[in-house]
Amino acid sequence: MPGAGPGPCEPDLRHHGDAEVRGAGAALTDLAVNVRTGTPPAWLKARIAASLDGLAAYPDGRPARRAVAARHGLPPERVLLTAGAAEAFVLIARAVRARRPVVVHPQFTEPEAALRDAGHAVERVLLTERNGFRLAADAVPDDADLVVVGNPTNPTSVLHPAEEIAGLARPGRVLVVDEAFMDAVPGEHASLASRTDVPGLVVLRSLTKTWGLAGLRIGYVLAAPEIVTDLERAQPLWPVSAPALAAAEACCEPAALAEAAEAARRIAADRDHLLARLAEVRGPDGHEVHAVTPADGPFVLIRLPDAAAVRTRLRALGFAVRRGDTFPGLGPGWLRLAVRDRATTDRFAEALEKALTG
Description:
Number of helices: 11
Order of helices and strands: EHHEHEHEEHEEHEHHHEEHEEH
Strand content: 15-25%
Structural class: alpha/beta
Largest sheet: 7 strands, mixed
Shape: globular
């Protein structure tokens, strides 16, 4: 039933990484939430704080909309600002009249949850470990008129080639590409954000991950003007706050884009270090930790024996990691790890080896 909770064998689509670090978990070293550490930077906090002087006025999203459009080389009418990418999923679920919606899993679970809450019967396409969770050309049914796919995909960290994703477009189909983590990919070479030649394309972006703004809620949609208009009609009035609009405008400036690009390069290097350390970890029987590679996001998906117990032991050792069994297509043997600095990774690798020994 739409909106119902998970059944006994159904993954909990509403479980997210922040649940690992609430309450007593707040004291743990956080490898569960994919928000870059040390953020937001001081200059961005100052810009947001300066916007508070204008709180008596209703928010005016036009400057931020123009800034986002310029950042991607698009006209403003192809941009819709949202209260985080999560709001965009709700708008799509409400505004798109789909007969056969398909969500490609494993991926972020909010798109399916939003579609189900809106009364859609959602079909899942499950990618498998056998081919590295990569998208096969014929995986999606030809008559699917709404397709949702992540790139790079959370939680697998797989980056699908741009043309492979674009190849999913069909006449009469809305193709939703969640690029919430694309700005963590050096060069964003697989992005479709600036493309206007792909019919029915809807690209979603988030500013919360790279800039540490999860509590502010700011993201945006890039799509054809008629799709933007349909989604905008499903929004409440003034959906994005003035501080969030100020942040969006600031994060699209050249200096901010250069800072984000440098952060992406640093994340890639730190991810390589994490993968190298994971390759050295051994359980008491010599069992290795299997990481999904190549990984291109600011997180890594791993498979290991007795992952639920290992996750609990890691908490006792001071680390929070993301369980994988709430993602359709995965099971209890999977954990997701956010990429952190090398010192944190070294401490985590030692804790993981201890956790594996029980």
